[in-house]
Write a structure and sequence with these properties.
The complex is a heterodimer. By secondary structure, chain A is mainly alpha-helical. Chain A has helices at residues 3-10, 13-39, 45-55, 67-97, 112-115, 117-136, 152-160, 163-190, 199-225. Chain A has one domain (14-96, 118-225): Up-down Bundle (3 helical TM bundles of succinate and fumarate reductases). Chain B has two domains: 2-111, Ubiquitin-like (UB roll) (Roll); 118-257, Fumarate Reductase Iron-sulfur Protein, Chain B, domain 2, CATH 1.10.1060. Chain B has helices at residues 34-47, 119-128, 148-158, 165-169, 176-187, 196-209, 220-224, 232-257, and strands spanning 2-10, 19-28, 70-71, 74-75, 97-101, 110-112, 115-116. The chains are: A mainly alpha, B alpha+beta. The interface between A and B is large, with 51 and 56 residues. The structure holds FE2/S2 (inorganic) cluster (FES). FE2/S2 (inorganic) cluster binds next to loops of chain B.
Chain lengths: 230, 258
């Protein structure tokens, strides 16, 4: 696509939604990959730490140390920024579209997930900021000297042994699951792939992917709290 | 005979502030339509020298799309696939108290009481424009072959009566279901192909410009549509618009070559 096509699409509400769908697809892909990576913790300290070290060498020898990692981070950051900017603009548009609200309004078939996309998105954003400060930088949630760069297994076990940190992670994962439950299906609807016959598989995909991501991720803090990972 | 308490939105004109006024509707028969119930109440108000409640209506058989307001938070009331004129009082119980208010959307300003101005819909349709091909006299009915599924789907879209319930029920006040129905019923037929890309671009642009909100795929529109127009029509419009957007590139590339 060239600039004029992108600008034409970005200029419409539907085009902005398409941007949200495509960036959402990238982010969901990352979330699934991240969850699978998390599960490597069950292979033991050595393998999990080796996995973290390997992430820094992906693409070698074509990519140098951490080069691929930073490329991926850059793409994710741009996808997140576009996703949020589009969401903010579209939300503003919708708020403006109903200046007088109803005295009484009932929902018939809207799911809880679909009605909490905006605040869910805010919660997930705040969580991601905390999560990076926590496990990537060790800046929060650790006492001085506890966090060691690249001893990821220890960091996770120590980090999650604080019960309220673990509880926050679990709550954030539920928010992420709800966001994905409506978001993944929405992706297909927004990109126009949902047809009179094809709707069901997309809904099923949304349900399965969100449940798998939530359970996989929640298992880690739960296992730490239960004393299974130490 | 039933008795109902109605909390009705009263607003003198577009600029006056409105408020809810409570009325007792007595002697309501189960066989009355909702509008007939209001007619009886209005007779009484006129008898008392009060201003009757203004509501829009025309066909009273569920096909023109003029009627429509919120009854207890639901567009066109509690019955599915039903306009307010086709809603009967047997759907309610004696002693019920109901809140009645107009569609709420910036694009649908209140004209008076329960009447809103839906001309934004007309402007979206106008943006669809005319077909540019010279059509001559009326062709034979079956001269152009149309696959049965396409004809059926186009008809499903064409069933839209433009009542505005989709906008009213949408938490975003989006007009996607309406616009999608209009875009699709033309876009599905062979006669609608030459202008297909142009039409969807223009109609979506006008829809956005009319200050409707942005769809979040929640599906409340589909739930209240008296003509049961389905959510996948919106996906169809999204698809057409994205495709039309990509074709802008092809056109500009061709222009560059010339
Ligand atoms: S008055 Fe025509 S649809 Fe209700």
């Amino acid at each position: 696509m060239n600039a004029s096509a992108v600008m034409m699409l970005w200029g419409t509400s539907i085009g902005k939604k398409a941007v949200m769908a495509v960036t959402g697809f990238i982010l969901v892909g990352f979330v699934i990959g991240h969850m699978l990576g998390n599960l490597k913790i069950y292979q033991g300290e050595e393998k999990f730490n080796a996995y973290a070290a390997w992430l820094r060498e992906v693409g070698s020898p074509a990519f140098g140390h951490e080069q691929f990692l930073w490329l991926a981070r850059l793409i994710l950051l741009m996808a997140t920024a576009l996703h949020i900017v589009a969401a903010a603009q579209l939300t503003q548009m919708s708020y403006d579209a109903r200046p007088v609200s109803y005295a009484q309004k009932k929902a018939i078939q809207a799911t809880y997930a679909s009605r909490t996309m905006r605040w869910g998105g805010v919660i997930i954003t705040l969580f991601v900021v905390y999560h990076i400060l926590h496990f990537t930088f060790g800046a929060v949630g650790f006492t001085p000297g506890q966090y060691k760069h690249l001893s990821v297994y220890r960091n996770v076990v120590i980090g999650f042994s604080v019960w309220y940190v673990a509880a926050f992670y679990i709550a954030a994962m539920v928010a992420l699951g709800l966001h994905m439950y409506h978001g993944v299906w929405s992706m297909f609807q927004t990109l126009g792939l949902n047809t009179e016959n094809a709707g069901r598989p997309y809904q099923a995909l949304a349900t399965v992917s969100s449940i798998v991501v939530v359970l996989g991720n929640i298992s880690v803090p739960t296992a730490v709290l239960a004393g299974l990972l130490k | 005979m039933m008795k109902l308490t109605l909390r009705v939105w009263r607003q003198k004109n577009a600029t006056a502030p409105g408020r809810f006024v409570t009325y007792e509707a007595k002697n309501v028969s189960q066989d009355m339509s909702f509008l007939e119930m209001l007619d009886v109440l209005n007779e009484e108000l006129i008898g008392r020298g009060e201003e009757p409640i203004a509501f829009e209506h025309d066909c009273r058989e569920g096909i023109c799309g003029s009627c429509g307001f919120m009854i207890d938070g639901l567009a066109h009331g509690p019955k599915r696939a039903t306009t307010v004129c086709q809603l009967h009082m047997r759907s309610f119980r004696d002693g019920d108290s109901l809140t009645i208010e107009p569609w709420r959307a910036r694009a649908f300003p209140v004209v008076k009481d329960l009447i809103v101005d839906r001309s934004a819909f007309d402007r979206i349709i106008q943006a669809g424009g005319f077909i540019s091909a010279p059509t001559g006299s009326a062709p034979d009915a079956n001269a152009i072959l149309i696959p049965k599924e396409h004809a059926d789907l186009a008809f499903d879209g064409a069933a839209c009566i433009g009542c505005g319930a989709c906008v009213a029920a949408c938490p975003n006040a989006a007009a996607m279901l309406f616009t999608a129905a209009k875009v699709s019923h033309l876009g599905l037929l062979p006669q609608g192909q030459p202008e297909r890309d142009d039409r969807v671009r223009k109609m979506v642009t006008v829809m956005d410009g009319e200050m409707f909100g942005s769809c979040t795929n929640i599906g409340e529109c589909e739930a209240v549509c008296p003509k049961e127009i389905r959510l996948y029509f919106i996906a169809r419009m999204n698809h057409d618009l994205i495709k039309a957007g990509i074709k802008v590139r092809k056109m500009s590339q061709q222009a560059a070559r010339i």
